[in-house]
């Protein structure tokens, strides 16, 4: 039985659930990072980051890209939810066993210290449980029950914070980082499974034992998932393999600060994607106008953030822990990618909205190739700084590719004039910040720099109040999609 159309109010609520949960989780995760980095130091922090990244890199071989197909097919026909879930979970048991055995078997040949090995074992178990939870949440997404995922993932992050901080304060043993992850993932998979069983339609049958998709149908999803995993984790893994845990810790500090800002474009794109899809179907003019407004809004936000953190990199890292000051150059390079990352997330949504998903997969594959090659070339000589350079170059590569792929829908002339005004306001803010950074406390200097940017933007008319209001109205109309 096909699923009914999603009511506008429910779409809006579902968007809000995941957006708020994502923001809360990233705030809690960054707070946790600040605490444990001070308690265990750079070396142990690097061991933890390496173990988690190495395990997550293997995670695609457990999931195999099932999640998008689960969500799609359950949404199309909720009566098949139980059959789809059962088939996927039966298959995942075997992929989980095989992947975990392979991961633990490889570990002794590439990891030489006991702490990292034990952290990797715990991270492998977490990888499995999170993959199981991902399938349950995928079915719940297909059934339009997104609040359960928002609640479960948020409580899991709270558990990580509570268990991890309590264990570290009491013992100062870094193994508690892995124990905290394991405790949270056990809760998450239990909660997700319990909520799913209560939400499954009564008429759902068990269905056949085999997977409901052919290998050919699964291949694009697996390939896309593989690219995403490699792009997200290979840099940290290569820093660990080609240098030491100390440099992994320094790179992790730069990465965490950059990653903490991702909730902004994620929240924005969650809201704008339905509006883009609707505009693509209804009006080319409206789509082009929405693209320009979105790119202006994201640039208006991301460029000053990047410039402020570049100027204040050393004092910001010193606030976390003095040991991370050596990561200042890596942070300055990594944070320079923020405007491109913001724009890339939007371009990905735009291409999907225009039914150009193949362009996204091709672009991501190319970027992953560039990223891996640059990391292999740069890390042996420049360690964490080399990884940051590779990350920046990769982000720029996808931005250029995305603009080329969507060039027929972008009003370049409007963006060119805006770029000049934005550059003037950002330059004024940067000059003032350079004068203040060594004279005032970092938070005061950041606030004053931000104030100069706001005033400069008003004078240069980087983006008008009417344009911001129009963009907000467009996003509020997403529920009508």
Which short descriptors sum up this protein?
481 residues, mainly alpha, 2 domains, 84% helix, 0% strand, globular
Question: How would you summarize the topology of this molecule?
Answer:
Elements lengths: L7 H51 L1 H4 L2 H11 L4 H30 L3 H29 L3 H26 L3 H25 L15 H28 L2 H16 L2 H20 L1 H28 L1 H8 L7 H8 L2 H16 L3 H49 L6 H25 L5 H19 L4 H12 L5
Describe the structure concisely.
This protein has 481 residues and is mainly alpha-helical.
Can you give a write-up of this model?
The chain is mainly alpha-helical and 481 residues long. It folds into two domains: 213 residues, no CATH class; 259 residues, no CATH class. The protein contains 18 helices and no strands. Helix 16 runs antiparallel to helix 17. 45% of the residues are buried. The N terminus is likely disordered.
